Amino acid sequence: MQIAGYPGVILAGGLARRMGGGDKGLMLLHGQSLIQQVITRLSPQVQHMAINANGDPARFAAFTLPVLPDLVPGFPGPLAGVLSAMDWAAGLGADAVVTVAADTPFFPDDLVARLQAAGGSAGFSLAATGAATAPDWHPTFGLWPTALRDTLRRDLLAGQRKVIGWALQNGARPALFGAQDDPFFNINTPEDLVAARLRDDL
Q: Which tens digits make up the pLDDT trace of 112-130?
């Protein structure tokens, strides 16, 4: 489903310590990089796409997408990538931006529509599985209002690093998904990559 006006950003700025470093998104799954798998799943759901990553952007040149570095130094975590996504989307005139993780290629093909439905008038939601009363959050999958970018920038510079805490303080709602088949299975270790290669839902 095309969601007009929502750009999407693939968060690929982590250090991949449990994978031994490097770019997890460039590892192969079924003959394609994880990022390409994510691009394929996200592209029908958004209007524009970019990759959030640090270092030399040339290593992502094959994807022909903008590469957005963190705007806060020191690898402060996913919130820095969200800020880069917000600033980029605001420059496109978008009211909100969708983020997804580069190491989680099985996310739902109706992710954006369901984030939008959950976000309400504030347009702010995070993916979760489980019960609404005790959700299991997947906070790198979210719909983020660009109007909050200055608040996020201030809080990041003040030391904020907790994605869920910051999001809930600023009005995020859960977009609940079924846990069956683990749609937000993320590839953090070599063993996870082996498990992902056994799945048939790409």
A: 999 999 999 899 999 999 9
